[in-house]
Amino acid sequence: MTAANPDPSQLLAQQFTGYFYEKFQSNREQLAPLFEETSTMTFEGACFKGREQIMAKLMSLPMNMQRILSTADCQALDNTFFIVFIVGQVKSDDDHPHGFAETFLLKNVNGQISIMNSFFRLILHNA
Length: 127
Prior knowledge:
Layout: H1 8-26, E1 35-43, E2 46-49, H2 50-60, E3 66-76, E4 81-91, E5 98-109, E6 112-123
Parallel strand pairs: 1-6
Antiparallel strand pairs: 1-2, 3-4, 4-5, 5-6
């Protein structure tokens, strides 16, 4: 796609990441409708299944956790499913920023987005 005709999946990635990370910062409870009972999240190797477990994990994270996005790439699998891959930095309290990668498998049904799967991993380098 050209700059004049942007890839619709990139537009979806921008809209989704803008909404998700803004709500993550301001009011995480509003993220609950994005998850289904069949959704799965892997966070630093720990697996959480269903809306209740996923939201409990998200709510347990520090409220002052800031995520700064560097890139958000998206590929359409078909007209319903999309993979979004994010790279950025995360910072909380007086800790130094750490790199992170996050991937989402999104389902789009009639404009309603659901997060079917997600993976979050800090990018730590041992010196």
